[in-house]
Amino acid sequence: MNIKSSAAIAKKWADVTPGRSGDFEAGVKDAAVDWAGPTAAAESAYVDGVTAAISAKRFSKGVNAAGTEKWRRKTIDQGVGHWGSGVRAAQADQQAGFAPYREALAALTLSPRFSRGDPRNIDRVALIAKTLNDVKAKG
Questions:
Q1: Which of 33, 53, 78, 113 could bridge across to 58 with cysteines, CB 3.0–4.6 Å?
Q2: pTM of this structure
Q3: What is the pLDDT of residues 27-48, one digit of tens each?
Q4: 100 lies in the same domain as 138
């Protein structure tokens, strides 16, 4: 089979795909597309895939294949520039997501704080940890 080189394929992909952001947006906005229903219905396939990945140790294999240098380069080259706009765009989601934790923390009555190093202070931390874990477990 005659096929272009990996470099040529990657170059064409990098040249052409960014210009298709309108197609990407239109696909997401399409009211006929139901993402949540089919995605939730695929839970057993997700479980099977994750179980297979765990059995094959794909997580650590992927991490080791990428390495720290790739992680660092991609994070700096791409992540840093999108950090501020991404955080600003997520403000309402952060507020809604953190609200149950905030309410649970606000309702706590902590025992008195003792002097630094007093082991009884760990009881305060344990109560906070348990409260946060309980909120997370409720979903």
A1: 53
A2: 0.70
A3: 999 999 999 999 999 999 999 9
A4: yes
